[in-house]
Amino acid sequence: MAGNSILLAAVSVLSACQQSYFALQVARARLKYKITPPAVFGSPEFERIFRAQQNCVEYYPIFLTTLWMAGWYFNQVFATCLGLVYIYARHQFFWGYSEAAKKRITGFRLSLGSLALLTILGTLGIANSFLDEYLDFNVAKKLRHF
Asked: How many whole angstroms separate alpha carbon 94 and alpha carbon 99?
């Protein structure tokens, strides 16, 4: 079973490393701008870094769920590629937001687009599996005949 999901697992580990890296950047900013926990307000530079990291954390469960559902039920390679796009988009978002709030938009839109595609692929795959399992109707097999 593990071998069947190796690409999804690799993207998941990579994304976990990215989340850790973003958290480390917040810790560094706390030291640099002298903001001690639990405070989350201070200089605008710190607040942008903190908000960028928090936004990434807020979207992380959605990313992992849609990544694995699209990979399991639709196609692991497509899901993996979209997962890598999402990781790149979050990188762009984090560093853009860290510089200026307006610079976050491109990365944010790209990450939302990849999440939307992962959601659509997962939904299509789950629907096909449901139809195949309970109604003995496999859309993928029907499409191959055309």
From this structure: 9
The answer to whether residues 58 and 68 touch, using CB atoms and an 8 Å cutoff, is no
Q: How many CB atoms lie within 10 A of CB 146?
A: 4
Q: How far apart are CA 102 and CA 117, in angstroms?
A: 24
Among residues 29, 31, 60, which one has the least CA distance to residue 47? 29
Q: What does each C-alpha distance from 25 to 18, 47, 59, 66, 73 come to in angstroms?
A: 11, 12, 18, 26, 35
pLDDT digits (tens, 9 = 90+) for 16-31: 999 999 999 999 999 9
pTM to 2 decimal places: 0.92
Q: Which of 83, 69, 78 is nearest to 124 (CA)?
A: 69
Tens of pLDDT, residue by residue over 46-83, are 999 999 999 999 999 999 999 999 999 999 999 999 99
- Rounded distance, CA 74 to CA 112, Å? 19
